[in-house]
Amino acid sequence: MSLPPGFLDEIRNRVPISRVIGKKVVWDLRKSNQGRGDWWAPCPFHQEKSASFHCDDQKGYYYCFGCQAKGDAIRFLREADGMEFIDAVKLLAAEAGLQMPEPDPRAREKTDRRTRLLDVTEAACRWFRLQLQTGAAAEARDYLTRRGLDQAALDRFEIGFAPDSRTALTQALRDKGFDEGLIVESGMSAKPDDGGAAYDRFRGRIIFPIRDGQGRCIGFGGRAMDPNARAKYLNSPETPLFDKGRNLYNLGPARAAVAKGQRLVVAEGYMDVIALARAGFEGAVAPLGTAITEDQLRLMWRVSPEPVIALDGDAAGQRAAQRLIDLALPLTGPGQALRFVILPAGQDPDDLIKGAGPGAMGALLDGARPLVDLLWARETEGQNFDSPERKAALEKRLADAVAKIPDELTRNHYAKELRNKQWDLFGTASRRGDWKPGKRGGTAKPPRPVLPIPAAADPQAASTLLEGASLLICALHPELIEQVETRLERLAPQHPDRAALLFDLLSNTRSVLGRRGLETLRADPNLIPMQIAEKTAGEASAYLHEALDRLEARKISEKEILRAENEISGEADEGLTWRFRQIGQARHRIERFDDDDAKDMDKDQKALSDQLSQFVDGQIWRKPPRR
């Protein structure tokens, strides 16, 4: 629609931008200067507690210093409410008391045609819902019941049914007064190539209505009830209303949930979204039967600056993650990030929530990994970098990937993070060296398995993770408890669920709290790698002893160094400083298990533990009396 010159400026002059935005935010009146039209609030486009969203009435402009969202009142309505440009203009014009200019005949005809198409899809939506209550839909109702959907869920997501009839919907829409051309254009029916009568596109399928950000029904997805159907899922075709690469299922409700503080979770399909939303993760959306597109990524970022992509743990989910890395890198930057959750193998969100509860899903989402971690995993997992050429090839692939990032600051941070990961990978390998039978005169003994959980920079987080690993291993391999019973008794979990689990393990009992503690540990994304492959008793025993060794080393050194810090007074003593350095180095070596300086891991660990004990027994923090 063509607008006369100055019309938009007149709207901006008449309607303060703070009046438009104030309907969506709560102004921070301590930081705002109302007299000058200078307003601050927590940003409506990303989750934050501080007021970094600035609105200036004099300039008619907003800007967020957190996610860099910016624009005028029209842009705000388009981003916040998903409005089309002309709809935002109409709303603001009405608020300003201005009459919208008459559109040209062609624009009016196009708008009227779109409105009639929406009337067709809304009528079809109502008809599908009625069909779900008929006898023909008995099998579909049974399937939905088995999937755990009650009547409230069916109503909430407007789920319907298309009977296995060639013309039932087309005839019902004709009876409503819609002509065949309009029905075909809406995607509800199709014309055969030979020019025969139109036939229903959806037949014998459970129907999921697809609505745009403003709640208008623009298309449908259908799941076949016949297991031999050529396509298990079928979407509406491309129409003037529906473009599957530019829309998301459940967009409107998800946007509202994100505005209230929930995270945006991107799942794979309709049932995943429904399961997530019913479990309390109401900011769930899904692409429409295709891999995520660039337009869908941009749409996600208009809702949240950091969506969480939750992919099934099967091969298809892994491939989808790899494709998304290449799509997202040229688009990523401040306010446009992604995090990823790869579910346990063979499970989708619905399976996980039903099997382990919403808490397990929440734990996975809390531990979602950033895009840079997936890039690193893709380029390194399952590969051996035992030559300069292989290391150089890795470095080149990473450099090529980082070069795709347009934002300079983001690109620099990626490069730094990947350099650190390379240092950790190559530095650790070069320090430890290759194990060789009989090295340094020792017995031919392979290296001790490395505990497959990530290191944590925060000491408390590291201790909590090691404690969780110890409890999880004992729960999965109860035959090992007798070996370490005394050491387990020295654990003192702070969390009630973990304490209950420890009591259950030692007393061979089962409690509600203990079972909940075990479920939480099994859902911890940092501990999931320990459960993917079956471990032999020997491997499990090695992991258990390593976790307890590292945990006890941390506790000893942290406790005694804390006592030292409390008791030291007066001027520094060089001998004392040297001894503290020895404690730090000893603990570091215990946790790194550097076996170059000992015949094998066990002897090295014992020697270092003995060294710590000598320091503790000798109370090295006490300064000798002055003579």
UniProtKB/TrEMBL annotation:
Q: What does the entry comment about cofactor binding?
A: Binds 1 zinc ion per monomer.
Coiled coil start-end: none
Fill in the subunit field for this protein. Monomer. Interacts with DnaB.
Please list the cofactors this protein needs.
Zn(2+)
Where are the residues of the annotated region Disordered? Answer: 429-450
**Cited CDD domains:** TOPRIM_DnaG_primases
What's any one GO cellular component for it? DNA-directed RNA polymerase complex
Residue ranges covered by zinc fingers (CHC2-type): 43-67
BP GO annotations: DNA replication, synthesis of primer
Q: Cite the entry's keywords alphabetically.
A: DNA replication, DNA-binding, DNA-directed RNA polymerase, Magnesium, Metal-binding, Nucleotidyltransferase, Primosome, Transcription, Transferase, Zinc, Zinc-finger
The family classification in the record reads: Belongs to the DnaG primase family.
Q: Domain notes, please? A: Contains an N-terminal zinc-binding domain, a central core domain that contains the primase activity, and a C-terminal DnaB-binding domain.
Q: Note whether Protein biosynthesis occurs among the keywords.
A: no
Q: What is its EC number?
A: 2.7.7.101
Protein's job: RNA polymerase that catalyzes the synthesis of short RNA molecules used as primers for DNA polymerase during DNA replication.
What GO terms are given for molecular function? DNA binding; DNA-directed RNA polymerase activity; zinc ion binding
| Domain called Toprim: residue spans | 262-346
**Record's PROSITE patterns?**
TOPRIM
Q: Which domain of life does the protein's organism represent?
A: Bacteria
Reaction(s) catalysed by this chain, per the record, are: ssDNA + n NTP = ssDNA/pppN(pN)n-1 hybrid + (n-1) diphosphate
> What name does the UniProt record give this protein?
DNA primase
